[in-house]
Amino acid sequence: MAAPLSVEVEFGGGAELLFDGIKKHQVTLPGQEEPWDIRSLLIWIKKNLLKERPELFIQGDSVRPGILVLINDADWELLGELDYQLQDQDSILFISTLHGG
Amino acid sequence: MCQVGEDYVDPPPRECPPAPRPGRGQKCVKCKEGKPVVAVRAGDAFCRDCFKAFYIHKFRAMLGKNRLIFPGEKVLLAWSGGPSSSSMVWQVLEGLSQHSAKRLRFVPGVVYVDEGAVCGQSLEDRAKTLAEVQQILCSISFPWHVVSLEEAQMTSITWLLCPRSHLILHVARAHSYSKVMTGDSCTRLAIKLMTNLALGRGAFLAWDTGFSDERYGDVVVVRPMRDHTLKEVAFYNRLFAVPSVFTPAVDTKAPEKASIHRLMEAFVHRLQAQFPSTVSTVYRTSEKLAKAPRESCAEGPQGPRCLLCLCTLDIDAADSATAFGVQTSALSQMPPSTLQAEAGIPTTPCSAVGGGPGCCGKACGREGDSQPQVIKQLCYSCRANMKDLPSLDPLPPYILAEAQLRSQRAWVMQDIQEYLIKDSADEAETTES
């Protein structure tokens, strides 16, 4: 049984447009059976934070190609991507590279 | 990799084995000591400091190996506020600072194009964006210019003309900059290359995506960020706090099928996610494109240029099936009145310019800015775009004036041909073409 987690979810590079323009969200994830990982976090974000056009952020069970994920300012590719298990006070940043130059 | 009939709405399941991923607990591949923070290529993880050195080195190497910028030269940095151009401006700032081991020695200025009016931003949002922009610009020690794309100048079709490029060029010329630097990244250029192929701009790929673009003649556009992927840019900006200003564009929330560009962008990103060497492969291929001048150019090595994109015309009227195809469809869409005017072209040329005093009116039929006249001065790709237009009305006056001028010049040249003294080489060329 995983305890509730307090994490910071941040959006940049234009991704914030899908979240009412708000870049930083302090989030409390409820306690649940399985530990929280990025996969389940995405599902939670889709249900609770995403305001419009889910297909511009999520594709399948992952983020849309072109959106970078940083966990505590490190590349999620180095941390297991979707399987990374969240810890209390983690900071997850989603940067869209699909816009701007 | 790609399958015919692939459904772009639902991605296929990941059947291919994932690219090798750096494991946890691995050290930086460069210094073997630091904690890795970013995976640059498949399996290559760098620590913060090594990544910084790698990133800066790429920028310097790109400028150094091309040797196009001279000490003391005035270079205009085109800053869109976006991550790539912001990173570029930052690199130049750092490169010019006293502390750099090898100081950059050119003289920079920055230009920002405010596109808020045409992107449908509210006045409030525009003001807010401009305030952020000004704040950043004020912290830079070199001269800066802010220009606006006004709604009055823009219609949906002028979007195709890259008015932003024209504006930047105008600023460069007005302030004697001989070079313009744009922040096009590796990723963007790979997408651009594929998109331009689909749009019929195959002849100009080397100029559209290469390090330097000399189409404007007096001002050369260079792309020092073309070796940096968007991922590297995003990480660098985040890790080293590079300021940027986000402004939504016309197509920011557009669906994938809204344009060829969007579709290609989605395609490249999707491929890149599964095959991390996609972008670099396209980039390396584009490096091999050579800028070969056309051999059968009647007007010398430069040749006539497209009115809209300013590239040397790629249509060979004599033999090209593609030229025939595009022209025919353009003519078939012309309104009957224009066709009639074309049929009744008199033999004496109209001496007036642009319908001014002395012009014999529409009856002269030699309207330099009539649709067929304009279309004749466009490259294959721009013609294909123009054929969707019912009339020339949306084109800005300066384009129509230029078309007029060129037509007049061509008519005059034709009239005085017999009086020109030619040498034998010219004679041979004229009879051949």
Automatic annotation (TrEMBL), chain A:
<feature type="modified residue" description="1-thioglycine">
    <location>
        <position position="101"/>
    </location>
</feature>
<keyword id="KW-0963">Cytoplasm</keyword>
<dbReference type="Pfam" id="PF09138">
    <property type="entry name" value="Urm1"/>
</dbReference>
<dbReference type="GO" id="GO:0034227">
    <property type="term" value="P:tRNA thio-modification"/>
</dbReference>
<comment type="subunit">
    <text>Component of a complex at least composed of URM1, CTU2/NCS2 and CTU1/ATPBD3.</text>
</comment>
<dbReference type="InterPro" id="IPR015221">
    <property type="entry name" value="Urm1"/>
</dbReference>
<dbReference type="GO" id="GO:0032447">
    <property type="term" value="P:protein urmylation"/>
</dbReference>
<dbReference type="InterPro" id="IPR012675">
    <property type="entry name" value="Beta-grasp_dom_sf"/>
</dbReference>
<dbReference type="InterPro" id="IPR016155">
    <property type="entry name" value="Mopterin_synth/thiamin_S_b"/>
</dbReference>
<feature type="cross-link" description="Glycyl lysine isopeptide (Gly-Lys) (interchain with K-? in acceptor proteins)">
    <location>
        <position position="101"/>
    </location>
</feature>
<dbReference type="GO" id="GO:0005829">
    <property type="term" value="C:cytosol"/>
</dbReference>
<comment type="function">
    <text>Acts as a sulfur carrier required for 2-thiolation of mcm(5)S(2)U at tRNA wobble positions of cytosolic tRNA(Lys), tRNA(Glu) and tRNA(Gln). Serves as sulfur donor in tRNA 2-thiolation reaction by being thiocarboxylated (-COSH) at its C-terminus by MOCS3. The sulfur is then transferred to tRNA to form 2-thiolation of mcm(5)S(2)U. Also acts as a ubiquitin-like protein (UBL) that is covalently conjugated via an isopeptide bond to lysine residues of target proteins such as MOCS3, ATPBD3, CTU2, USP15 and CAS.</text>
</comment>
<protein>
    <recommendedName>
        <fullName>Ubiquitin-related modifier 1</fullName>
    </recommendedName>
</protein>
<comment type="similarity">
    <text>Belongs to the URM1 family.</text>
</comment>
<keyword id="KW-0833">Ubl conjugation pathway</keyword>
<keyword id="KW-1017">Isopeptide bond</keyword>
<dbReference type="GO" id="GO:0097163">
    <property type="term" value="F:sulfur carrier activity"/>
</dbReference>
<dbReference type="GO" id="GO:0002098">
    <property type="term" value="P:tRNA wobble uridine modification"/>
</dbReference>
<keyword id="KW-0819">tRNA processing</keyword>
<comment type="pathway">
    <text>tRNA modification; 5-methoxycarbonylmethyl-2-thiouridine-tRNA biosynthesis.</text>
</comment>
TrEMBL record, chain B:
<dbReference type="GO" id="GO:0002143">
    <property type="term" value="P:tRNA wobble position uridine thiolation"/>
</dbReference>
<feature type="region of interest" description="Disordered">
    <location>
        <begin position="1"/>
        <end position="24"/>
    </location>
</feature>
<comment type="subunit">
    <text>Component of a complex at least composed of URM1, CTU2/NCS2 and CTU1/ATPBD3.</text>
</comment>
<dbReference type="Pfam" id="PF10288">
    <property type="entry name" value="CTU2"/>
</dbReference>
<comment type="similarity">
    <text>Belongs to the CTU2/NCS2 family.</text>
</comment>
<dbReference type="InterPro" id="IPR019407">
    <property type="entry name" value="CTU2"/>
</dbReference>
<dbReference type="GO" id="GO:0032447">
    <property type="term" value="P:protein urmylation"/>
</dbReference>
<comment type="function">
    <text>Plays a central role in 2-thiolation of mcm(5)S(2)U at tRNA wobble positions of tRNA(Lys), tRNA(Glu) and tRNA(Gln). May act by forming a heterodimer with CTU1/ATPBD3 that ligates sulfur from thiocarboxylated URM1 onto the uridine of tRNAs at wobble position.</text>
</comment>
<dbReference type="InterPro" id="IPR014729">
    <property type="entry name" value="Rossmann-like_a/b/a_fold"/>
</dbReference>
<feature type="compositionally biased region" description="Pro residues">
    <location>
        <begin position="10"/>
        <end position="21"/>
    </location>
</feature>
<keyword id="KW-0819">tRNA processing</keyword>
<dbReference type="GO" id="GO:0005829">
    <property type="term" value="C:cytosol"/>
</dbReference>
<dbReference type="GO" id="GO:0000049">
    <property type="term" value="F:tRNA binding"/>
</dbReference>
<dbReference type="GO" id="GO:0016779">
    <property type="term" value="F:nucleotidyltransferase activity"/>
</dbReference>
<comment type="pathway">
    <text>tRNA modification; 5-methoxycarbonylmethyl-2-thiouridine-tRNA biosynthesis.</text>
</comment>
<dbReference type="GO" id="GO:0016783">
    <property type="term" value="F:sulfurtransferase activity"/>
</dbReference>
<protein>
    <recommendedName>
        <fullName>Cytoplasmic tRNA 2-thiolation protein 2</fullName>
    </recommendedName>
</protein>
<keyword id="KW-0963">Cytoplasm</keyword>
